Amino acid sequence: MHPSTPTVSGPLVFITGASSGIGQALAARFARAGYRLALVARRTEDMQAWAQAQGFDAARCQVYGADVADIDSIVAAGQACLAAQGVPDVVIANAGISIGMDTADRSDIDVMARTFATNNTGLAATFHPFVAAMTARGSGALVGIGSVAAIRGLPGHGAYCASKAAVVAYCESLRGELRGSGVAVVTLLPGYVDTPLTRQNRYRMPFLLTAETFADRAFDAIGAGTSYRVIPWQMGVVAKLLRLLPNPWFDRLLAGRPRKHRQGERDATR
């Protein structure tokens, strides 16, 4: 998919972490709505194979290789998109990792740093190339993918919960900064979604959605310019109720709950 290939008309969506799971489902949903695609993944061969299998030619879909944890890498991908395809109408910072941690283990502090580099700094770096251009145009949507895990910290999930809480706070800050510019900031908090990542979980996942169902609901929320939405809403209710529990009750409720796999136990890339 050569960047010099002429593009067709139609809105453009830029999606990170597009090679599997939620990102791939979002790409398919936006394609069905007539969007051109700018898809970012570390595994570009997988991404290109998927795009070709969908029948997307280079005029419809461009693939950019980048690691969102590397600021220069993801910024370069955004700049390449601007040069080859123009200013996106929607930018979705979806790429993320989820790895369990134990603060007593030195190597897990490195896990936490890598989680923040991907889920937080990488999110801001994903948006960076497009903010000025979208503001100048006076339209667009910047979409941060958080998690319902942002609402309350879970034992063994310290890095992930903290990073997703930071996604919510960062997007709220950015929304205030861009108020009146015409650029919307949308924060989406998935509950449990059936992806290669969540299939490794060793605990119960209530209200589990398929990636396609999540993508449908996310597409509607983005189109409506919703500032904050938990998908599915039932998980939002559960999380808010947990937020209201006094700490001793919450701690007792989660005592003995299986924890997320730590580094080396399972692959933890979205």
* Proportion of beta-strand residues: 15-25%
Number of strands: 9
Main beta sheet: strand number and arrangement?
7 strands, parallel
**Order of the strands making up the biggest sheet:** 3-2-1-4-5-6-9
Structural category:
alpha/beta
* Integer average pLDDT: 88
Q: What's the alpha carbon Rg, rounded to whole Å?
A: 18 Å
Terminal-residue CA separation: 24 Å
**What's the CATH topology label?**
Rossmann fold
Portion in helices: 40-55%
> What is the CATH C level class, in words?
Alpha Beta
What is the CATH superfamily classification?
Answer: NAD(P)-binding Rossmann-like Domain
Describe the structure.
- The protein has 270 residues and is of the alpha/beta class.
- Helix content is 46%, strand content 16%.
- It has one domain: Rossmann fold, CATH 3.40.50.720.
- It contains eight helices and nine strands.
- The strands form two sheets. Strands 3-2-1-4-5-6-9 form a seven-stranded parallel beta sheet, sandwiched between helices. Strands 7-8 form a two-stranded parallel sheet.
- Helix 1 crosses helix 6 and helix 4 (106-137) packs parallel to helix 5 (158-177).
- The radius of gyration is 18 Å and the shape is globular.
- It starts with 11 loop residues before the first strand and ends in a 16-residue tail after the last helix.
- The relative contact order is 0.14.
